[in-house]
Amino acid sequence: MKILLATQNQGKVKELQEMLSDTQIDVLSLRDIENWEDVEETGSTFAENASLKARVAAERTGYIALADDSGLEVDALNGAPGVYSARYAGEPKDDERNNDKLLKALEKVPDEERTARFRCALVIATPDGREYLTEGTVEGRISRMRRGKDGFGYDPLFFMSDFGRTMAELTVIQKNKVSHRAQAFQKAIPFLKELAQKSKTIKNE
Q1: CATH classification at residue 100
Q2: pTM of the prediction?
Q3: Is 69 a catalytic residue?
Q4: Number of C-beta neighbours around residue 130 at 10 A
């Protein structure tokens, strides 16, 4: 069975495909969809944005579609950048500029007050209108410098005390066990397997 992860981010696609390695589910991305027009994220919460993107993707393509909206909430910034995490430094979206702006905003904030969390909402939408929501959260703090090469977004700045490393310094296996996105995706796996089984049963009837 093929499913569509409604993103252009190949890092996210790779993460999900790794989690589904013991299944016969293939993950497509929006790069596989011709003439895709991005959905405007008008929601005020991660869950609203995820639902909007997943629902439109399922309706347009006929695939079971997944969409996540995730971001960084920094306590010293009253929860910012939040739902604006991907475009924190403006358009076009750019990880390096976002990280630069975050470091600047926290320049005078002491280490003990640089607490933050990654939050993710993931919605699975089916072409017939059903939706499933899962969520994940991971706590950490913002480092004063980038560390690690294996992440994207704010991963190089997100320090995790339990590991003594930033998220960008974790292996794929470690990240797929503890990250906010991994938590939400892992909770979604049973739904996906159930949908895949139903699809297989219908085809065999």
Answers
A1: 3.90.950.10
A2: 0.83
A3: yes
A4: 12
